[in-house]
Amino acid sequence: MKSLRASLASVLIALLSLGTARAAAPLKALILDGQNNHDWKSSTPHLKQVIEATGLFAVDVATAPGKGGDMGAFRPKFADYQVVVSNYNGERWTKETEEALVDFVRKGGGFVPVHAANNAFPDWKGFNEMIGVGGWGGRDEKSGPWLHWEGKLIRDLSPGPGGSHGKQHAFLMETRAPEHPVMKGLPTRWMHAKDELYDRLRGPAENVTVLATAYSDPATHGTGKNEALLFAIQFGRGRVFHTALGHNNGPDLTSQKCAGFIITLQRGVEWAATGKVTQKIPADFPGEDAVRSRP
């Protein structure tokens, strides 16, 4: 009897240990890069470090061939991950890779395009549905509405190009969906470090929640509108967190070192991966009076 009890105890301990190990296993994230009109070789390591700093993720990087390269060799196994982060803006992938990404997100995976990643693939219908809105690449009113805020969300179908920005500067962000898991508990107004304030982004804009906006001041050659810059999109069973923040001037990562950029990205990646946010809000999240940056 003592031997049986000892054996059962050993089995129970082993099962509990296995359960703890499984519970502690990190989520898996994949960053895509390889082409971009921004310096992805500088920004990808920073994005990887930011996501891993949550303690929630193990992060891999999949680098596509350079311009004119053989895209047939670029076949990331999206299904091995909970969330895919795009730092890519360049040539089209193969049909198989593109369909695999859409299928991954539609079936419940997470997707996070960062800044110029929303410039990519203007002619890929599924991609534009996933990101909600994008810029440049010939986008215009035929691509879908321009989203801006005037006391409520405006879906503006007036003629004009999709995507532009004024002079780089620090600007005030305003939370528009305070109960969304990504934004819950964050200040209503907070300063973001010097960045490109994207404006007139256009796209299908289906199942989109605008999380935060910033005023595009004519004094900095802006539109005079409150431009939507953080988005949450439901795509099938999957979730997309889209941040238009995060320009880098070569290795100068000023905007990506803003605590507001870092924390919203960390929270957005977790939400895209799991549908919830468990991270506490750090004490250095900026208020409306001054930018706060991290080394």
Low-confidence parts lasting 5 or more residues at pLDDT below 50? 11-22
Q: Helix proportion of residues, in percent?
A: 10-25%
Q: Count of DSSP E strands?
A: 13
> Outline, from the CA principal axes?
globular
Distance between the termini: 61 Å
Strand content: 15-25%
- Helix/strand/pairing class, anyone? alpha/beta
The helix count comes to 5
| Text of the CATH class | Alpha Beta
Would you list the SSEs in sequence order as H and E? HEHEEHEHEEEEEEEEEH
Average per-residue pLDDT, rounded, comes to: 93
**Number of domains as seen in the coordinates:** 1
Radius of gyration: 21 Å
By CATH's scheme, which homologous superfamily applies? Answer: Class I glutamine amidotransferase (GATase) domain
Main sheet: strands, sense, barrel? 11 strands, mixed
Query: From the 3D coordinates, which CATH architecture would you assign?
Result: 3-Layer(aba) Sandwich
Description:
The protein contains 5 helices and 13 strands. The protein is α/β, with parallel strands linked by helices. It has a single domain (25-274), classed as Class I glutamine amidotransferase (GATase) domain (Rossmann fold, 3-Layer(aba) Sandwich), CATH 3.40.50. The strands form 2 sheets. Strands 1, 2, 3, 4, 5, 6, 8, 9, 11, 12 and 13 form an 11-stranded mixed β-sheet that branches. The chain has a two-stranded antiparallel sheet with strand order 7-10. Helix 2 (40-52) links the parallel strand 1 and strand 2 (57-63). The longest helix has 23 residues, at 2-24. It is globular and about 45 Å long. Residues 11-22 have low confidence and may be disordered.
